[in-house]
Amino acid sequence: MKESGKKEGAASSSSSPPCAACRLLRRKCTHDCVFAPYFPPTQPHEFANVHKVFGASNVNKMLQEIPEHHRGDAVSSMVYEANARVRDPVYGCVGAISSLQQQINILQTQLVITQAEAMHLRVHHTASSNIIESQAKYFCDMDMVEHTSYGDSMRSC
Ligand SMILES: [Zn+2]
Fold first, then answer.
1. For a Cys staple, 36 with which of 12, 19, 118, 127, CB 3.0–4.6 Å?
2. Are 70 and 37 in contact (CB under 8 A)?
């Protein structure tokens, strides 16, 4: 789907198609168009949602107030928020944020439980390895130990 060249009013001198914003707003896309770097003609839905939620003139104003090196991030944030608002008209991205917050809470609880289990296992392991060590010493001290007596000492612990 390369430019067909004979698009209605699209600047006859320039060969590049208008950006998604100018196409939707049916206006001429000039070389200094503020939308063009962020809303390429290949992704028309992104601008459609942003326009629906924020309004093109507000987006225009916001972009001009922001330093150029921050505009890309601002646009991706607006696109995200607009898409979320279209998907969920009541909560928008707040719905996504609160569901992620819930996941964080669940995972933090699991982490605390797992850390407690790890601590318990470590303490248990240290205690049992101490017993084994003392039993090994006991075993080495006695030259001739029968299995039954060793078994008895295990049972008595
Ligand atoms: Zn444009």
1. 19
2. no
> Rounded distance, CA 18 to CA 30, Å?
8
Contacts of 66 (CB under 8 A, 6+ apart): 74
Mind listing the pLDDT tens digit for each residue in 39-67? 999 999 999 999 999 999 999 999 999 99
Distance 41 CA to ligand 1 centre (A): 9
The confidence score (pLDDT) of residue 143 equals 53
State in Å: Cα 24 to ligand 1 middle: 9
Contact between 10 and 18 under an 8 Å Cβ cutoff? The reply is: yes
Rounded distance from Cα 26 to ligand 1 centre (Å) = 10
Residue 33 Cα to ligand 1 middle (Å): 5
DSSP per-residue codes, 7-18: -SSS-SS--SPP
Distance CA 46, CA 54 (A): 12
Contact 108, 97 (CB under 8 A): no
